[in-house]
Sequence to fold (390 residues):
Amino acid sequence: MAIYEYVSPCHFGLEAVLKKEITELGLEIVSVEDGRVTYRGGEGAVARANTFLRTTERVLLLVAKFKAETFDELFEKTKALPWEDFIPRDGKFWVAKATSVKSKLFSPSDIQSIMKKAVVERLKQKYHQDWFAETGAGYPIRVTIMKDEVAVGIDTSGESLHKRGYRRLASRAPLTETLAAALIALTPWKKDRVLVDPFCGSGTIPIEAAMMGQNIAPGRKRTFLAEQWKNLIPAMHFARAREEADDMVLRDVTLSIQGYDIDRDIVDAARQNAILAGVDGQIHFQAKPVAELSSPKKFGFIVTNPPYGERMEEKTAMPALYREIGETFAKLDTWSYYIITGFEDAQKYIGRKADKNRKIYNGMMKTYFYQFQGPKPPKGGKADRAESRL
Fold:
């Protein structure tokens, strides 16, 4: 069986979360860099990584890494790669995306054009033909250049892995499913504990928590581009991954997850999304403001993404909102709460310094994941669990 290296990108600041997921799949970690993890596995690793990884946007089959400081060097080194081992005679191939950071080659469009030409020239030589119909399966090439080091991969996922297939309706500024899953993974929450999102929007955090609590693989009900690669990945690997995912679902578990939002329409959308995800019976959604949040239960968790004034006209409302958040959460004195926000004065108005603060880049936006940890449950209680932290 062929052994390949794979690269999965993630949000900057969440590399440790993705590394842990990959390790738990039994795959070998090769390297961890800013915004990506490289790992090694056989043909079946493509199917299992796409099916089970919650915190990456895609799985790339790594073709090569090399250094290039000029476009001539980029062309020649790309042309020297064994593209015929990956792309069949009728394969459709293009450079879908190029990114460059702190490198001499910085024009994405030029990088894409030159690399496409180099691949064509290589395949012309190997297949002894001057024209390619490109009527077969797709092999989108992605390249990242970081400090003149070029990493070339072929996208095995197709549509981004954050598209689980359940979110048809979204709030104005939703978290991606991959980021929501990573935030939950950064907390000690377990499926026997209460979890509440008082700013749930279209329901991404509660739905991802419910999927995690029921052990539902994020890619269980979707397809991936590499399933069309008959020359590389036998179809049986994807069938086995889906069978494994079905067998792992915890069907008799009962969760205590709630999602609240002041917008009734978006709460209705969250309910519909939960139905599509197959977890509607595990989440209670309700329209109500954060000031009305209360619970008789102890040692619960709040994981939430409140507004943080992305628009100028909203910024003046932020101090009052975060003051209200602080006052409301303080009443839940045994609870732990975890807030992702781009509002830099959040701690000031919440009225409490976070026990832990992780910087996370949500796209190009710098955000902070403030972690306010409550007391641990008494030993021997139902909620008593070892709480390892990344």
Observations:
- Residues 384-390 have pLDDT under 50 and may be disordered.
- The chain has three domains: 1-59, 65-155, 177-218+228-372.
- The domain at 177-218+228-372 is CATH 3.40.50.150 (Rossmann fold).
- The longest strand covers residues 92-101.
